[in-house]
């Protein structure tokens, strides 16, 4: 009891006069990194899902295998690979990306793309052949048929994107490795995200800040889940 | 206007249709009758330029449709309308469904600017869309969602969707096989209207009475071949081919 009672004053110490700014900058970095990663992931995932779903090509099984394996890839390993890629010895060494948001975007892109592709593939595969044929026979080009397919599968695709975003924003391993969890001396996050900040604050005993950050992350993830569930209901209702 | 010559198509091993020849002229209704599984849908998909048959030629006007460039073929494809056997409406309103053919024919630039202005304020419906829906008696249902239509209404919307861009050839794959008499009558009237507009209509049906009602000519598809083709009266009253005669008398059971 005494230990906990003794800890309380430490927790409530007004040690961080810049805390709101600190928290806002962390949210900002998290949303920026995960948001952009998901934009790039989606831009790659949708065409790949359409190709896998509706065309035959050499290496299709290989690509499928990569996606299936990629979904279960540990984030620390992805972080390690990306860190190596952007390090001095790596192929992207010249770009000077170690401990940058760009490197974090890259690693979250690698993490999210397989999941978004796989869920989108399931969604576009569910679009009835007849509907795609209708788009074609009504005068549509390949692009038109692809657009119709995406439109028909919109709920499933939105679910895929949100699930990918959820995975990205709550992931800690890769962003910690490639981003370095850096904040400047005046308390503004450079590469510190909600997840990496939480583990740092908790480790340093600043539970209050950690709790606030944890709560924010939880709200974001719960909001995403709520939207996914609503979309699922919308999909079932048709 | 459109003509098949010596067309053979094989999906897997055995040919489904063999050495078919058939033509349709503008303002003419040709019915394809034949038992289930004989290849009516296959024949229509070949006419719709969906499937390239292994042998034989298909001409649209004077153009060999599989001997020309992709661009030319797209232009030809866009003069053909088709209504499928099963429902195939988009997950959108009736109006959007019927508008689709017009939309894909516009340039990407126009489509983009249309899309943008649609976000700001809702665009009006093109006159041809309302007009095509009027032909099938659904002019009022423009804003209804396609998924909430009855089967008969959905099939009528599919018809309007193919009619809206004023095709030269209209292919109908058993358009009334699941419909009640009233919806069937509406579709048959719409077929007559298409014919009046100078459209060449090919309608697959297993209903011989329907063929008698709507068709100028009838082609009988049996055993992978067209066993008989000619004016409706002639085919039904005095078929030259023995198998055709048996099929029409209902003796040939499939
Ligand atoms: N995509 C396909 N792949 C392989 N075989 C097919 C394919 N489509 C049709 N077939 C086969 O070709 C034959 C003709 O089919 P088709 O659908 O053209 O017949 P149909 O006359 O339209 O029949 P129904 O009156 O029942 O609609 C059938 O034996 C069918 O199993
Ligand atoms: Mg059929």
UniProtKB/TrEMBL annotation, chain B:
Protein name as it appears in the record: Phosphate ABC transporter ATP-binding protein
Pfam families (UniProt xref): ABC_tran
One record GO biological process: phosphate ion transmembrane transport
Highest taxon listed in the record's lineage: Archaea
UniProt cross-references to InterPro entries, sorted A to Z: AAA+_ATPase, ABC_transporter-like_ATP-bd, ABC_transporter-like_CS, P-loop_NTPase, PstB-like
Transmembrane segments: none
Molecular functions (GO terms): ATP binding; ATP hydrolysis activity; phosphate transmembrane transporter activity
Residues of the ABC transporter domain: 2-248
PANTHER family: ABC TRANSPORTER I FAMILY MEMBER 17
Keywords, in A-Z order: ATP-binding, Cell membrane, Membrane, Nucleotide-binding, Transport
GO cellular component labels: membrane
């Amino acid at each position: 009891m005494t230990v906990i009672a003794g800890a309380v004053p430490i927790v409530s110490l007004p040690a961080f006069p810049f805390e709101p700014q600190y928290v806002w900058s962390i949210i900002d970095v998290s949303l920026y990194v995960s948001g952009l990663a998901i934009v790039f992931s989606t831009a790659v995932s949708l065409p790949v899902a359409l190709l896998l779903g509706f065309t035959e090509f050499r290496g299709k099984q290989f690509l499928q295998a990569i996606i299936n394996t990629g979904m279960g890839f540990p984030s620390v390993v992805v972080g390690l690979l990306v860190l190596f890629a952007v390090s001095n010895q790596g192929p992207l060494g010249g770009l000077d990306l170690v401990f940058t948001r760009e490197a974090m975007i890259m690693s979250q892109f690698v993490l999210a793309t397989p999941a978004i592709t796989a869920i989108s593939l399931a969604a576009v595969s569910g679009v009835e052949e007849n509907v795609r044929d209708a788009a074609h026979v009504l005068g549509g080009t390949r692009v038109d048929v692809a657009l119709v397919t995406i439109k028909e599968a919109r709920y499933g695709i939105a679910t895929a994107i949100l699930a990918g975003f959820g995975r990205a924003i709550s992931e800690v391993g890769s962003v910690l490795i490639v981003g370095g969890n850096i904040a400047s001396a005046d308390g503004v996050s450079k590469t510190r995200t909600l997840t990496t900040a939480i583990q740092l604050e908790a480790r340093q005993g600043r539970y209050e800040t950690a709790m606030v950050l944890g709560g924010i992350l939880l709200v974001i993830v719960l909001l995403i889940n709520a939207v996914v569930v609503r979309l699922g209901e919308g999909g079932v209702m048709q | 206007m459109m003509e098949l010559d010596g067309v053979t198509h094989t999906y897997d091993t055995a040919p489904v249709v063999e050495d078919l020849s058939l033509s349709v002229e503008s303002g003419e209704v040709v019915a394809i009758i034949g038992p289930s599984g004989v290849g009516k849908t296959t024949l229509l998909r070949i006419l719709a330029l969906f499937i390239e048959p292994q042998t034989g030629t298909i001409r649209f006007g004077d153009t060999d449709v599989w001997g020309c460039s992709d661009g030319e073929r797209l232009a030809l494809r866009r003069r053909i309308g088709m209504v499928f056997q099963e429902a195939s409406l988009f997950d959108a309103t009736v109006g959007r469904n019927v508008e689709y053919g017009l939309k894909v024919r516009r340039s990407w630039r126009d489509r983009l600017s249309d899309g943008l202005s649609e976000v700001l304020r809702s665009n009006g419906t093109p006159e041809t869309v309302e007009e095509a829906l009027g032909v099938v008696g659904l002019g009022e249902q423009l804003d209804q969602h396609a998924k909430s239509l009855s089967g008969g209404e959905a099939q009528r919307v599919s018809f309007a969707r193919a009619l809206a861009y004023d095709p030269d050839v209209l292919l109908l794959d058993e358009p009334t096989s699941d419909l009640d008499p009233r919806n069937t009558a509406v579709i048959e009237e719409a077929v007559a209207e298409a014919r009046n507009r100078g459209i060449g209509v090919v309608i697959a049906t297993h209903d011989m009475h329907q063929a008698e009602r709507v068709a100028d000519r009838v082609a009988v598809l049996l055993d992978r071949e067209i066993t008989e083709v000619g004016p409706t009266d002639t085919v039904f009253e005095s078929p030259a081919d023995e198998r055709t005669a048996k099929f029409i008398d209902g003796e040939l059971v499939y």
